[in-house]
Amino acid sequence: MANTTKNKAKELFDKFGEFDSYEELNEAAEGQLKQGDYDALKELAKENGIDPYDVEDYIDGCIHELTTVFSAALGRLDVQQEKIETIKNPIERSAYILILTFTKDLCSGEDMARAVMRKGKRVKDVFDGMKSSASNHKNGNIGMSCGTDEQLRQIIRAYYLQNASEFKKTIEKLYE
Known about the structure:
The chain has helices at about 1-5, 10, 20-35, 40-45, 50-60, 70-80, 90-105, 110-115, 125-135, 150-160, 165-170. α7 crosses α9. About 65% of the residues lie in helices and about 0% in strands. The protein is mainly alpha-helical and about 180 residues long.
C-alpha cells in the first residue's frame, strides 16, 4: 500500500504522459477529438485535472481549445492535491495545504501558470525543500519552515520561476 501512495502523482500521468505546456495538452486533446475518441479525451482531461464540463463544451464545439493556460495550471495543481491525504502530521499537512493554496493563487499570472505546467514541477518539491531546510535549522520539535505569507509566495515563485539555487536561497532567508 505504501508503494501505491508513494507513486500516486506519477500514476496521474501514466496513460498520456506529462505535458510541458497547456499547448501540448491542447494538441493531444485535438488529436483525440479529430479521431472521435471521446472516451480517451475524457480520460486525458481527468488525468490533467480539467473540468468534465469543459470537455463536454469542447466536444460540442462551444470552445475551440480544451483548456487555457490558467485552467491547465489549476488542473495540474488539483491532481497534486491527492498528496494531502498521505501526510499524517497535522502541521506538515497544513503547510502542504498552504503551499498548494498559495500556488493556485499565484497562477493568476500567466508566467506562473506556464511555470506550473512545466514537466516535473511539483508542489511536493516546495514542501520538501522547506521541510529539509527546517530540519537543518530545527530547534525543539518543530520541523517546518515558518514565515509570512509574502515569504511563502517568494519561495513558491523562486521554485517555479528561478533555478534550484535561488529556490534554496529564498528558503534560507527565513532563517537570517
